[in-house]
Amino acid sequence: MRGGLGEPSVLQRKFSCHGLLVRSVTCQRSRHRRALCVLPSWQDHELGTMKRVALWLLAEVGEGNKFTKEKLRKDFPGVSQIDRRMRDLRKYEWQIDTNREDLTLDPHEHCFVKAGLPVWERGVALSQRANAAIGAALRREVLAADGNMCRSCGITPGHPYVGTHEMAQLDIARRHVVTPTGVEVQLVTECKRCRVGGRGIEASLDAVLRDLSALGAIERRLLTSWVKADSRDFSRIEELWGDYRSLPAEARSKVQEALGLG
Q1: Which residues are within 8 A (CB) of 164 and not within 5 positions of it... i.e. 6 or more apart?
Q2: What is the pTM of this model?
Q3: What does pLDDT average to over the chain?
Q4: Where does the chain show beta strands of DSSP type E?
């Protein structure tokens, strides 16, 4: 049943305190319905506007209730394009009806029908956009998150590949990442060579022999053992480092948190 304009539900009034909202919501990512969640405050200006609007809808309106654009603009004074940020939530499975979808609504009214993905959680918006076209703004965001370098080989844009005059060019790739909640498609920065597999690249025997002659005795014995076995055993920590370096930014942040760096 729909309530009055902008009136929080009894459940919201009961559990709202100290800038946090504790309420029963549907968690679409984990598929646990009616889970008890602690939400950030919509008044946290460190969050983006779209995230704040999502939290405002949950805290101040409630699913199934009506609200007006005037109420939204009043609660977000001085925020430009606040209506557009609200509409952006529909890309993340939020249902916000107007009088075009619900004929019982007045032209100035909206109805918050149901919440979608928790866009305020780290990486949710980026993961969702990974399935969409990669525009200039998203490209810049991913490049910045990846340190403006290829996450597979570490090269930076405009830097020549070893032994060639070819300059590296970076692009955005989609990578499937296995997470505790399933497989996600995340965006990651890769150079053109890593993306296409290095087709047409010539190997230089002369360079290998020249570098081999410059090795010290210990390094030479170590390399000899690898060549003799035609393999090299990596320590687990080296394997973990390689695996970490190849992860997209969102997944790397989870590893950082596990190491106490988050």
Answers
A1: 201
A2: 0.43
A3: 78
A4: 16-17, 20-27, 32-39, 65-68, 95-97, 109-114, 170-179, 182-191
